[in-house]
Specification:
Amidohydro-rel; 15 helices; Urease, subunit C, domain 1; TIM Barrel; 28% strand; eleven-stranded parallel beta sheet; nine-stranded mixed beta sheet
Length: 469
């Protein structure tokens, strides 16, 4: 008997060149058959006529923390059709210890942020300290590190050293670009591209550097596209929401995050306590709060009251991502037909902007992407980059990570991870978490009783040998 049978959906699997109506059978968490009609009995049947099935969505940039977040991030991505995600800052230990209360059945790979006073001793750690930090992260269950240049910039030589060390150790390294010399903008992107010097680097949310801070949004997006084309060693993602995410903590009348200062000034507010308060009151910024079920953004006087009651120790969002740059980055292709920006992302998780389905389906309806191309950016490219050979496609024997889409209403209808239906028609059904780790973290996670899978090491050849839809 089958564990799960999905009947009557249009199945879109770019790796196997499938785009037709089929049934999918699942046994023991794996896809056991896929054909026009399957008549075997099943313990659970999903009637999916009129729906679209794609390989499980992989969001390549979220924040799953409870610290300065809340406990609902996993539920929020499961509701959004996401099976697997790359958390881009940790804290690693916070996410691991929150599994019993927060688990919703999803897969999470984690990057630990290099943050002065938290994970490193200063903004200029020694090479030995940098090396120890990377090793410790891998051994504890993370897959690599993230540089928070946009929020907490370091000198360029330190960021470059981190990139070199991570590559030597075959660890993932991502950069929210920015340094003490250049900010989180197109100038910072140029600097990061040069610093990678042909080595692997994950450029976080490319759209964030195309907000018209230096030139106009279109010119910046076009330049970003060319920089990525010229440097195939760079993995990148961009998100489709107008909302960003940042710490809105103000200390000594100065925003703690450089990104917050930039957003305030861009929107015409002073970058101080009064300016932040006014931005929240007028609705230009929202304060992230836990409403007991999911995270939401509070604005107006209610948002101000919450922010002040918490002594500004909050995170929040500004609507600062222009539509034109988001569109260009989402659709741009290289000369060989592969995508310039490898994957969709949201920078969501705990932030309410998990819109790979909602906004991605609009791109499909507009005609900017085919469903197959959408699946490449929403799933396959992320799986390939992360070294998850059994994800991102619907081959027989592959992990039964599946997203069922309601194309008409631009929403996720079902989220399935290893054959387990963790969300169906808006109802959450999952629990627990599977951590995606480096082989160096498997022993530690096993000792802690944390379910995990081991990814393949970072492979520059795989990054550069992009899938062509």
């Amino acid at each position: 008997m089958l564990d799960l049978l999905i009947r009557g959906a249009v199945v879109v699997d770019p790796l196997n060149h499938i785009h037709s109506k089929k049934d999918i059978a699942v046994i023991d968490g794996k896809i056991s058959d896929i054909r026009e009609e399957i008549t075997l009995p099943a313990r659970k049947v999903i009637e999916a006529d009129g729906k679209v099935v794609i390989p499980g969505i992989i969001d390549m940039h979220t924040h799953m923390r409870t610290v300065l977040g809340h406990k609902h991030a996993q539920r929020m991505i499961a509701l959004a059709g996401v099976c697997t995600t790359l958390d881009m800052a940790g804290p690693l230990e916070d996410i691991l210890t929150s599994i019993p209360e927060s688990g919703a059945g999803v897969n999470i790979a984690i990057l630990e942020a290099a943050r002065e006073g938290m994970t490193i001793s200063s903004s200029r750690p020694s090479v030995q300290e940098q090396s120890d930090f990377i090793d410790r992260t891998l051994e504890q269950g993370g897959i690599g590190i993230k540089l928070l240049g946009g929020h907490f910039p370091m000198d360029l030589d330190i960021s470059k050293s981190f990139i070199d060390l991570a590559n030597d150790k075959k660890a993932w390294v991502a950069w929210h670009v920015g340094s003490t010399a250049h900010g989180s903008n197109i100038e910072g992107l140029r600097e990061a591209v040069s610093s990678a010097a042909g080595k692997f680097l994950h450029i976080a949310h490319v759209n964030s550097y195309c907000r018209g801070q230096i030139s106009n949004e279109t010119a910046e997006a076009v330049e970003a596209i060319q920089l990525l084309k010229n440097n195939p060693n760079l993995f990148s993602e961009s998100y489709l929401s107008p909302l960003n995410g940042t710490r809105i903590i103000v200390k000594d009348n100065v925003p703690l995050s450089k990104v917050t200062s930039t957003c305030l000034k861009k929107l015409g507010y002073s970058d101080d306590y009064a300016g932040m308060k006014k931005a929240i009151f007028e609705g230009a910024a929202g304060v992230l709060v836990d409403n007991g079920t999911v995270g939401e953004l509070l604005k107006g006087q209610e948002g101000v009251d919450y922010w002040e009651a918490h002594e500004t120790k909050c995170t929040g969002s500004f609507a600062v991502n222009p539509a034109v740059s988001r569109f260009l980055l989402a659709t741009a292709k290289r000369d060989d037909g592969s995508f310039v920006v490898d994957s969709f992302s949201t920078d969501g998780g705990c932030y309410p902007r998990n819109v790979i389905v909602e906004n991605g389906m609009l791109l499909v309806k507009f005609g900017a992407l085919t469903l197959s191309e959408y699946a490449v950016k929403a799933s396959l490219n992320g799986a390939r980059a992360l070294g998850l050979k059994n994800k991102g496609h619907l081959s027989v024997g592959a992990d039964a990570d599946i997203t069922i889409l309601d194309l008409q209403n631009e929403r996720a209808y079902a989220t399935i991870v290893e054959g387990n239906v963790i969300m169906l028609n808006g109802l959450l059904l999952g629990s627990g978490t599977t951590i995606i780790c480096d082989e160096r973290g498997s022993r530690t996670l096993s000792k802690r009783g944390i379910k995990h899978v081991v990814k393949a090491p970072v492979c520059l050849k795989t990054i550069e040998n992009r899938f062509i839809p």
